[in-house]
Design goal:
This protein has helices spanning about 15-25, 40-50, 60, 80-90, 105-110, 130-135, 170-185, 275-290, 295-315, and strands spanning about 5-10, 30-35, 55, 70, 90-95, 120, 145-150, 190-195, 210-215, 220-225, 235-240, 245-250, 255-260, 260-265, 320. By secondary structure, the protein is an alpha/beta fold. The strands form 2 sheets. The chain has a 9-stranded mixed beta sheet, with helices on one face. Helix 2 (about 40-50) links the parallel strand 2 and strand 3. Helix 4 packs parallel to helix 5 (about 105-110), helix 6 packs parallel to helix 7 and helix 7 (about 170-185) packs across helix 9.
Length: about 325
């Protein structure tokens, strides 16, 4: 079928403000069923987006034969179980990041994944026009610097709870690992991470972290992720160096390319982080059977988040196996 017959599980603010509007813009998403914990939020979302039915039981999504694809946008701690169910019921699966919050969950998903049903994680930045444009100019061994002015998430918010949200390295830094790996076109083989160490623990130390990623093809990326800066500074800045080319990407608004002694610029009136293109890519993946993001890459990125935490803990370089 050319249509994505979708069952949605979870309908929080991000789903309502970003995911569903972008699916609508792409078109050919048939919104079949929506499932939320309480039903109250499902009611409003179901009516607004014209879902055929609403439920509080996710099994009613997985066992529905009309549904060929599931979008999982629940709290992080339920992602793994729902992805496993999607694979068991042979449904294609779009899951918001992270794929899972524990390494044993990742291994279970990897065992279940055969490629028959696709899994795509919400790593939207690789689909942004500016990152796509950067990729076209790049080849061979690269050095990537990715600086993130992440802003504070208070300790009592669920994302910071290891058992609910996994913390920000698992829950958010995965985005930046994926973007680096997309630009580099290789897999991370080892990682070293070091955090700020402060007496005031209002912001967890791991929210201010420097990460070095070593790649199989000889490239290196550094991610500098800081939660304790000033929010008026633009959030994301990427530099890439390699094979006679240098680039700066300013928060998805401007790309500066230095090549052959010349400087050129690309500007974007709106800050396109790739959300619409991500759902175009998911639709195309279902139609062609070719994943938009190779599962091996998703596996590697997710594994790296766990190894970053391990490196912080042991204070040394850690292999990603």
């Amino acid at each position: 079928s050319d249509k994505v017959n979708l069952g949605l599980i979870g309908a929080g603010n991000f789903t309502k403000s970003v995911i569903l509007p972008n699916m609508q813009k792409v078109g050919d998403y048939e919104l079949v069923g929506v499932c939320t914990a309480t039903g109250v939020s499902a009611e409003g979302t179901g009516k607004k987006y014209d879902f055929k039915y609403i439920t509080t039981d996710s099994n009613e999504i997985f066992t529905n034969s009309e549904i060929n694809s599931v979008a999982i946008t629940t709290q992080h701690n339920s992602h793994a179980t729902l992805v496993e169910k999607a694979l068991e019921h042979k449904k294609h699966c779009f899951v918001e990041k992270p794929l899972c919050i524990y390494e044993e969950e990742l291994e279970r998903i990897a065992k279940l994944y055969s490629g028959e049903s696709l899994v795509q994680v919400g790593f939207n930045r690789r689909f942004s026009p500016m990152v796509q444009s950067m990729k076209k100019h790049l080849s061979g061994q690269l050095s990537v610097n990715y600086r993130v002015n992440a802003g504070v998430i208070p300790k009592d918010v669920w994302i910071q709870d290891r058992e609910l949200g996994g913390g920000r390295i698992i829950g958010e830094v995965c985005h930046f690992i994926d973007t680096c790996s997309f630009l580099v076109q290789s897999e991370v083989v080892s990682v070293y991470a070091s955090t700020i160490k402060k007496s005031n623990q209002a912001i967890p130390d791991e929210d201010n972290v420097n990460i070095v990623l070593n790649y199989a093809n000889g490239s290196v990326a550094t991610i500098a992720y800081y939660a304790y800066g000033d929010s008026t500074m633009p959030k994301e800045y990427i530099e890439v160096f390699g094979n006679g080319i240098s680039m700066e990407m300013h928060d998805f608004r401007e790309l500066v390319i230095y090549e052959n002694g010349k400087k050129s610029k690309e500007k974007s009136a709106n800050q396109d982080k790739g959300f619409m293109n991500e759902f175009k890519a998911f639709k195309e993946a279902i139609n062609t059977g070719t994943p938009a993001i190779p599962f091996e890459s998703i596996y590697n990125t997710t594994k790296v988040t766990f190894k970053i935490l391990e490196s912080i803990n042991v204070g040394t370089l850690v292999d990603v196996k």
